[in-house]
Write a structure and sequence with these properties.
Elements lengths: L5 E5 L4 H13 L3 E6 L2 H10 L4 E4 L8 H5 L2 E6 L11 H22 L4 E5 L16 E2 L15 H17 L9 E7 L1 E3 L10 H6 L4 E3 L2 E6 H13 L7 E4 L2 E4 H11 L2 H8 L4 E3 L1 H7 L7 H10 L4 E2 L14 H18 L1
Organism: Paenibacillus taichungensis
Keywords: Oxidoreductase
Protein name: NAD-dependent epimerase/dehydratase family protein
């Protein structure tokens, strides 16, 4: 990657995408193009990153993409196609398949795109497993999107999308031999670069409700962005899938850390009422009657701290991951700051 190469960030106003744009800007890249859907967010980010050129463009729709991709060499894809007409998980998956295929077809037609780093998720790797004895997952594994009872649409739709992307890359349709690498973040946490994102801490712990304690793997959003760039630059990463996972924790550990570091008033300002966490072994006993379901086989081993994620490529990402306590504390501080501004 040369500093004057044209780089496209699809979904530049997103949680990871905005940090990718910020880090590329700090490195000194001069031709960064970002696509967006929301005019107000794009306008605000434009004031923060005035060197980035913005285009409104939706995956699955052809408008503006020829101009976006003209003379582009490197694509960071943080986006996915969506449709309000989708009714089922499979509908969402077919929409995402269509969107990623359109992007790759137009990238090939451009004649200049060399490589795409496609951000997907751990949900395309470690769920819907038919073997209940399997507890270790690597990038060689795939979520079974056809497994009956999957409870999260991302497990289905993102897996369908990624399979479609690899199918195109390995087919004769890839007439210009575009290279692809995929990155699979676990729970993404940490301070948002922009003021409109609350991270997974907010999604997991807010609300007056009961929830089962469970292990979770996490990664700082800034590390996820830096890993995108590292994978783009690495020839060793070409054609491979990569976990983005810095640490292993539990919901109760995160909540206890927050309670130690912040006042009740501060916690309420960010999270409202915090969730009441049921110990994992108790939750597993409650669910024992549905042991044959996909939900039980996916989630109970996590409640009992039995699942391991192991990357096949520990050396490809030459970067020091942010320590998890720092991630959590700085995420809360940023959300407090944004609340006070609002």
């Amino acid at each position: 990657m040369e500093l004057n190469d044209k780089i496209v960030i699809i979904g530049v106003t997103g949680y990871i995408g905005a940090w990718v744009a910020k880090k590329l800007t700090d490195i000194g890249y001069t031709q960064i193009v970002g696509t967006y859907r929301n005019e107000a967010k794009a306008g605000q980010l434009q004031t923060m990153l005035p060197n980035v050129k913005f285009y409104k463009a939706n995956l699955g729709e052809t408008e503006n993409w020829h101009e976006v991709l003209s003379e582009a060499k490197w694509i960071f894809n943080q986006g996915s196609a969506s449709s309000p007409d989708d009714k089922t998980f499979k509908d969402r998956g077919r929409t995402k398949e269509k969107g990623i295929r359109m992007l790759l077809q137009m990238a090939a037609q451009s004649g200049t795109v060399k490589k795409i780093v496609h951000t997907t998720a751990e949900s395309t790797i470690a769920y819907g497993n038919d073997d209940p004895s399997k507890t270790t997952f690597t990038e060689d594994d795939w979520t079974n999107e056809d497994r009956e009872g999957l409870f999260d649409h991302n497990m289905v739709s993102k897996t369908m999308e990624e399979r479609a992307a690899w199918s195109f890359i390995r087919s004769d349709e890839n007439t210009t031999n575009i290279i692809m690498t995929t990155i699979h973040p676990t729970h993404v946490m940490g301070p948002s670069f922009v003021p409109w994102h609350n991270d997974m801490i907010y999604a997991m712990l807010r609300g007056d409700r009961a929830m089962a304690d469970s292990q979770l793997y996490g990664v700082d959003v800034r590390d996820a962005a830096a890993m995108n760039i590292a994978l783009m630059k690495s020839t060793e990463a070409n054609g491979k899938r990569h976990f983005a996972s810095a640490f292993k924790s539990t919901y109760s550990t995160l909540l206890n850390l927050i309670k130690e570091q912040f006042t009740d008033e501060q916690i309420k300002a960010v999270l409202g009422h915090t969730a009441r966490i049921i110990p994992g072994d108790e939750a597993a006993d409650i669910l024992s009657h549905c042991h044959s379901t996909s939900y039980y086989q996916d989630m109970v081993p996590r409640m009992l701290n039995r699942i391991e994620y192991k990357t096949n490529y520990p050396d490809v990402y030459a970067y020091q991951y942010t320590e998890p306590n720092t991630t959590v504390i700085e995420a809360m501080e940023k959300m407090l700051k944004d609340k006070n501004k609002g």
